[in-house]
Write a structure and sequence with these properties.
- The protein starts with 27 loop residues before the first helix and ends with a helix.
- By secondary structure, it is mainly α.
- It has helices spanning 28-31, 39-54, 64-73, 86-95.
- The protein is built from four helices and no strands.
- It comes from Camelus dromedarius.
- Residues 1-97 form the Protein kinase domain.
- This is cGMP-dependent protein kinase 2.
């Protein structure tokens, strides 16, 4: 999910290196500048689902660098709130691989 001015069409197996986006929604591979494909859109969708269910994004620090550091620790190490049941948690974890 991005401002369409930054949107790119990439083919299967291709990557791009554009760094843009709201810090709480940026995927780890974008932060690490490893090149990324459309899977970063699935990451952002997972973050959005989490925020819709809880009212807050799962990774939020006092500044951008802290937020990025939290993201780099990974969703797999995160404890989900009890109000998120197993099925939505599984969906979010699959989206945020």
């Amino acid at each position: 999910m991005v401002d369409f001015g930054f949107a790119k069409k990439i083919g299967s197996g291709q990557k791009t290196w554009t760094f843009c986006g709201t810090p709480e929604y940026v995927a780890p591979e974008v932060i690490l500048n490893k090149g990324h494909d459309f899977s970063v859109d699935f990451w952002s969708l997972g973050i959005l689902v989490y925020e819709l269910l809880t009212g807050n994004p799962p990774f939020s620090g006092i500044d951008q660098m802290m937020t990025y550091n939290l993201i780099l620790k990974g969703i797999e190490k995160m404890d989900f709130p009890r109000k998120i049941t197993r099925r939505p948690e599984d969906l979010i974890r699959r989206l945020c691989r």
